[in-house]
Sequence to fold (253 residues):
Amino acid sequence: MILDKYVPATEHIRVALSLPLAPFQYIISAPFQAIDKWSHLLTTQDTLHKENIDLKAQQLLLQAQLQRLAAIESENNHLKGLVHSSQNIHGKMMIAQLLAVESDLSAHQIILDKGSHEGVFVGQPVLDAHGVMGQVIQVSPLSSRVLLINDTKSGVAVEGARNGIRSIAVGDGYSGRLRLANVPQTADIRKGDMFLTSGLSDRYPPGYPVGEVVSINRDPGSPFVNIILEPSAHLDQSRQVLLVWPVKMATGR
Fold:
């Protein structure tokens, strides 16, 4: 080492001696280099795996946010429909929220978040943005129960928008639709005809959509024709509804 430091000629000797030792140096360092490479690969793989998990979590979060935005947009559109519908109502009205749906398949009833504390009363009409939903049949201080128009116990006085034919639309609980009661075979009713509330029963304000004719079955052996209506109201979809105080009720309060 002293000669190598102070005698320049020894540099050639050191170079000559290093040549035979080079393969051994590579052999000795190879495992360490391999370990370093594998360690780097494992670290990189672990980092990529964590990043992948984080990205999937962010993706799920974004999807949930998008779904929430879609729900909010749908709710806003429905509220806009309610506002537009309310412009045609003469009298007091109030928006109510759906709390629960009757679990009995034979009954078509819903529970709303408004009750006698807000002035809700038995027999009060309930509408959505598309038409008549039903009427209140039970009231508590903070909630109310609504009988939907497709319940078998429901009956709505209606008239045809095209020619004024009057009838009663009763609920068909199994199909979820409506049926016109006691319509004679000679009645001028066609598929696509719209039936509105007639206002004759004092239960519903006149002129609101009840249902559209989707089926007409004329049995020669029966004096009456079987006519089925598809309800105009979205009975199984609406979450916000309108509680309506008819004009004479609103003015009487």
